[in-house]
Amino acid sequence: MTVSDIIQQENALRIKEIARDLGFDFCGISRADFLEEEAPRLEKWLRLGRHGKMQYMENHFDKRLDPRLLVEGAKSVVSLLYNYYPEETLPEGDEDLKIAKYAYGVDYHFVIKDKLKDFLSRIQEEIGAVDGRCFVDSAPVMEKAWAKQAGLGWIGKNSNLITRKSGSFFFIAELIIDLDLQPDGPMADYCGTCTRCIDACPTDAISEPYGVDGSRCISYLTIELKESIPESFKGHTKNWVFGCDICQDVCPWNRFSQPHRESAFHLPDELKTFQARDWQELTEETFRRVFKKSPLKRAKYEGLQRNVLFVTE
């Protein structure tokens, strides 16, 4: 082992210690290279129109696959997971209107972005002159692919990143930096013969194992799609009005999920008492107050109204 190898190993270990100090649950490292295996998959997915109306997915194709085109001088991709599995959940009975668990509290972009800025500052203080950029679902970065490369988990048949220790209820973030670090290797796939996510999806969005048709996903229909939800999905969205957790809820690996430790992700008291009628009678004023810093603001009041009417009329 050369002196350079030892330094890369020591720096990688220090960076993982800093990540733990800041509350990240998992941290892994990969070389900032071209994602060769992902290129044909992404091209096919786009060609088949499985991105629906998400035209932005067609942009920056090369940058999605090569972080060196996104961050000048990039040498390492540091992938991080931040748990959002709640201790207390909203009712999810047949008559209840439901929102994805990731949207229970404050928008994760705000929470994790601040942590990433602290993360980069700590690295610069403890290791030296390191330059890079922070990403939280805000740029053409293939987060799940990089997390897989870094050994944090595998991409399951529902296209979510799954960890053996804690399932899949995690936000993924990256720090792309100009520092050579000892990389971690990818993890094996542990989905086996299980097809629970495929069998449970009410809109048949998981058209084949590892092949999700985004244009049929309930999360896409209730968040990304800005026009009317096609009538063909009537009765199939299972009362989800913002996002969907079905394929995660049925995943056997999520029996290992542990409640998060982030106070910003807790359910607001007012939301705990919401019933179907409250969603139906929601005013714009109440929406602005209850969801002031919530991910639900992405759908906007009009979009949420559309989703509620779609499942209640």
TrEMBL record:
Pathway: tRNA modification; tRNA-queuosine biosynthesis. It catalyses: epoxyqueuosine(34) in tRNA + AH2 = queuosine(34) in tRNA + A + H2O. InterPro entries: 4Fe4S_Fe-S-bd, 4Fe4S_Fe_S_CS, QueG, QueG_DUF1730. TRNA binds at K226. GO terms for molecular function: 4 iron, 4 sulfur cluster binding; cobalamin binding; epoxyqueuosine reductase activity; metal ion binding. Its EC number is 1.17.99.6. Signal peptide: none annotated. Residues 184-211 form the 4Fe-4S ferredoxin-type domain. Coiled coil: none annotated. Its cofactor is [4Fe-4S] cluster; cob(II)alamin. [4Fe-4S] cluster 1 binds at C191, C194, C197, C251. The active site is at D137. Monomer. Belongs to the QueG family. Catalyzes the conversion of epoxyqueuosine (oQ) to queuosine (Q), which is a hypermodified base found in the wobble positions of tRNA(Asp), tRNA(Asn), tRNA(His) and tRNA(Tyr). This is Epoxyqueuosine reductase. The lineage of its organism: Bacteria, Pseudomonadati, Bacteroidota, Cytophagia, Cytophagales. The gene is queG.
